[in-house]
Specification:
By secondary structure, the chain is mainly α. The protein is 56% helix and 3% strand.
């Protein structure tokens, strides 16, 4: 800021959140990233990248040629705004930066090393909610990793299959009926679908839902999850425009069709808060129970090389069981 960069933002590395990036996207869809070039800076950059993709931001990274170390503060103190202009000309794309971080010398790497790098890149790109963006990023990453693009696509399909499988939990008695014929495909038994409907028809629930529902509980592998994630972010920051003014929040014809179908419904729900709590319970169970099963397996089959000791696992199991026993608190006035 002191040298003339009036659009600079200092998120302090690991403290940046998805909600902050969603707000940043409102000002501009592109960001230039200027992290320290040491191991901690690289780790922070790779943590930032999937959050940026999920928020819909296009990121470019400033680096110095070769192995030169980069400290943004010192660089600007010594050279001022001119340093920014030079770095900008050689900025790396998100995929170029990520691939270089995971696989600095692809030509000298073994097939196993390239496979590990490919998996790491796919996990980052999977954060994007746009199939078009993912396809483009996979194509670029494949060139940097010296791989065929379809290999990354196949890795993504393998990664995405479990989290995109429709939930099998039965709807609660108070749950609204499925969408009318001809509406966008939305799994009627999906808790995201029902919570989204509640946000649209009982808007006073939006703010307390945003406080009670962590973003990582939401499955964004289908339109209802994408919209619920976006809407509770609006509620959380006090920016909810009301159900009749949602055009600027809908980014695809599929999303518009789904919202129109939900608004068309007239749900008969005696206790919306109770229905919302049941939806939160289902989301929490889906998020926490896999880890609980993992702990049970680790305790039943202890390994000498395990990083977690049994005492820590028992404590974590006890805490997860405690959370699953208690209802998710939700304070709302309807």
């Amino acid at each position: 800021w002191s040298v003339g960069l009036k659009t600079a933002v200092a998120p302090q590395g690991t403290s940046i959140t998805e909600n902050q990036l969603v707000l940043l996207r409102r000002y501009h869809p592109q960001v230039e990233c200027f992290f320290d070039s040491d191991a901690a800076g690289q780790k922070a950059a790779l943590r930032f990248l999937p959050l940026a993709l999920k928020a819909g931001l296009e990121a470019r990274f400033f680096t110095l040629p070769g192995e030169a170390k980069l400290d943004p503060d010192l660089l600007f103190l010594e050279r001022g705004i001119a340093a920014h202009d030079e770095l900008r000309q050689g900025a790396q794309s998100a995929m170029a930066y990520a691939c270089r971080s995971f696989l600095p010398q692809p030509g000298r790497s073994s097939a196993e090393e390239r496979a590990r790098a490919a998996q790491s890149v796919v996990e980052i790109v999977a954060a994007s909610e746009s199939a078009t963006v993912r396809s483009s990023l996979f194509g670029e990453a494949a060139r940097h990793l010296w791989l065929e693009p379809n290999i990354l696509e196949r890795e993504f399909q393998t990664l995405a299959a479990p989290r995109r499988r429709p939930p099998t939990a039965a709807p609660t008695p108070e749950a609204p009926a499925p969408s009318p014929a001809g509406s966008a495909p939305a799994p009627a038994q999906n808790p995201e679908y029902h919570l989204l409907l509640l946000c649209l028809h009982f808007e006073a629930l939006g703010k307390p839902l945003s406080a009670a529902l962590p973003h990582d509980w939401i499955d964004t592998g289908h339109p209802a999850g994408v919209l619920l994630n976006r809407f509770i972010n609006e509620f959380a920051h006090g920016d909810w425009p009301g159900r009749d003014n949602l055009d600027h929040l809908l980014e695809s014809p599929e999303e518009r069709t789904l919202v129109a179908a939900l608004l068309f419904e007239t749900p008969v729900i005696d206790d919306p808060v109770k229905v919302a709590q049941e939806g939160l319970r289902q989301l929490r169970a889906r998020a926490l129970e896999p880890r609980l099963r993992q702990i049970e397996l680790a305790l039943a089959n202890p390994r000498a090389d395990s990083e977690s000791d049994p005492i820590s696992l028992l404590k974590e199991r006890s805490e997860l069981q405690r959370q699953l026993r208690h209802p998710v608190p939700l304070v709302a006035v309807i």
